[in-house]
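A favour, since you know our structure tokens better than I do. Just paste the record in under my message, thanks.
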Amino acid sequence: RIYLLATLCVTSNSFATSPNILFIAIDDLNDWVGYLGGHPQAETPNIDRLISKGVGFSKAYTVAPLCNPSRVALLTGLYPSTSGVYGNRDNFRKNLPNEITLLQHFRANGYLTMGGGKIFHGNNRPNDSLSWDHYFISKGHTKKSGRDPNLPKVSTGSGWFNWGPLNVEDDQMQDVKVVEWAKSELKKSHKKPFFLACGFYRPHLPWYVPKKYFEKYPLDKIVLPDTKINDRNDLPELGKRFARERYSASWGTDLNEGIQDHDLVLKLDQWKKGVQAYLASISFVDNYIGELLEELQNSEYADNTIVILWGDHGWHLGEKQHWRKQALWEDTTHVPFIVSYPRKIKKNKICEAPVSFIDIYPTLVDLAGISKKENLDGESLLELLQNPSMKWVRPVLSTYGKGNHAVRYENWRYIQYKDGSSELYNHQDDPNEWYNLSENADYKGVIERLKKTIPISEK
């Protein structure tokens, strides 16, 4: 309350020129997006079209390959090593009771903050009442009627590890209800600039979407991800564990007993069906992103709205014989990230510089021209958005559990685990991360340079 009163010095005259924010979050969307080329069959024309009005980042990375720490880092501007939020069960308000979230900061600067769907972790829940003026709650069709009958009933705590087409109309889906709500807000005349957050739940598991989206990808034409037999052989023990373990909500719990995800998929001949379902879910989301962007274009806010689109972390579909997120490789950390604001940044550009979601908070503050927020771990990307081809020398840090970190810089990915073991990949020669170079003495200098990004102390 004190923060809100102390910083509410924005005049009504400035509201007329303050840009609105359309904040689009997509759960579990990896780089299977047209402009990123993560899968040859991925079709995302609406996501890709947004780049025509802004900048698409080809090397954007999550702060953490897990929903809660990823979103907390983005929305507080603090690394897990600063906040102490490493897992899905961590409540950031207990760790950081007085921290000012991105939404709070915009509220304090005269913005109306509205959200719907999944923004903070917790599907379709606000999770932080201090951040929102209004939050739309919707329930939609995600029932088990779409479950492939050949899959066992596997409950993992992160949703059913299942997929299949639904015989329902689109308007019964929760994501569609959230988009319709967001569209209704764009039709209104708001007295204050708004921060409108629209969170998509798909392509999070279970991959249940209407049948027509599955039909876009005939099963006999599905292309499986590139994989290498025995890809895990050169990994340290913690890397092998991350590749094979099932979902664990409690960090450090050993859940390696029983059949693992990839073995289950192979045993039941479900690999192509899983890929088909993931692609179908992406197409479903892309369709409704198109509807949302079209509504914005037809609204009174078309010329004065910053649009930011992001996927919270990556996802494996068999690469390294791994499924899900919860690891520190390229497939679990590489994500789509697009920013559009023609008034202030370049249009129709692809930026090749590695960037982190830790920088979204200060970037939006700079783009909107509101007061700075001190003590953030990230730095603004505004200069890069205005000159996407400029040299950018900041390595990207990703964290999964205390003591486990990955650094992405130039052509390199370096992973260091809490037991001191490591992995090193040269993306110029090895884009699939098949060959771990960390034991090769020729790369000692590279490792020493990349290790400087890893935090010395952690909360």
Q: What stands out?
A: The CA atoms of residues 19 and 183 lie 18 Å apart. Residues 271-297 form the longest helix (27 residues). The chain is about 25% helix and 15% strand. The two ends are 27 Å apart (CA to CA).
